[in-house]
Amino acid sequence: KFPAYYWWVVLHELLGHGTGQMMVEYEEGKYNFDIDSPPVNPLTGNPITSWYRPGETWTGQFGDLATTVDECRAELVGAYLMDDPELLALFGFTDNSEIRAEDLTYNLYQQLGVDGLRGLANYNVDTGKWGQAHSRAHFAILKTLLTHGAGVLTITHTTHTTTTTTTNNNNKNNQPPTPSPPRLTVHVDRSKIRTHGKPALGAMLLRLHTYRCTADAAACRAYYEQLTRVEKEGKENEHLLWRETVLRHKPPPLAFAQANTFVVPHDGGEKVVVREYEESVEGVVRSWVERGV
């Protein structure tokens, strides 16, 4: 899990955020592309018709979508490249390595599913708004794989199960059945990663990248808002049920308890000792109190 996540982040930062040329008109009549023979828009097959005019910026044009769309684009770049044999070999992953290249890719797709589900925890049902840019991006990727991945990724939601505990081999003194908490399971079909998963990610990446480079905020908003919409009724209501299960299993927030150093008597002299604290609210409070600040 960690190697897949680590290299995904590396590709995200270096090639995701680090690539992409904006089509810009710096001042009237001066462009960073040939206005007489504009680049072809890969989504339409025709020359581009939009670009950044003088004074316009990415964040200014795309507003509240700017951060989440760019994070989604960077995540897609990393995920799209995580099955490339030559690239993975540079990182030390081959068919003969301890962690095989295909296993790394498989785990990455599992993480795409898990992160998409976890992202629902940052969706506000009352306002219909997303509270975190990465979470919205992860959910968008999950929906794309579910919709266009032809089964490369599926979600199983178990909501009503019971567990019976047996105390001996003769089935005597058995505990009564107890309900098990609902759970979500991500299934990845290895055979469809390159044939269906990668093309689905690539098509999504192409859209977001083109919208960003050509300043087509209107088309981007229509596409991305539809993709990240969580409906409250109908079939899409299952997303809200997923959210309830995610929240039920959400771990408590991390508590950072700063260790303190103290000078104490030792063999007629002094020594420095380090005191660490429990990673809890109580531990954080005790850390501050004993620091004497």
TrEMBL record:
GO terms, molecular function: dipeptidyl-peptidase activity; metal ion binding
Biased composition (Low complexity): 161-174
Family matches, as InterPro entries: Peptidase_M49 (IPR039461)
Residues of the signal peptide: 1-20
Pfam families in UniProt: Peptidase_M49
Keywords: Hydrolase, Metal-binding, Signal
Record-level GO cellular component terms: cytoplasm
Region of interest (Disordered), residue spans: 161-184
Domain of life: Eukaryota
Membrane-crossing residue ranges in chain numbering: none
Protein name: Dipeptidyl peptidase III
Organism the protein comes from: Parathielavia hyrcaniae
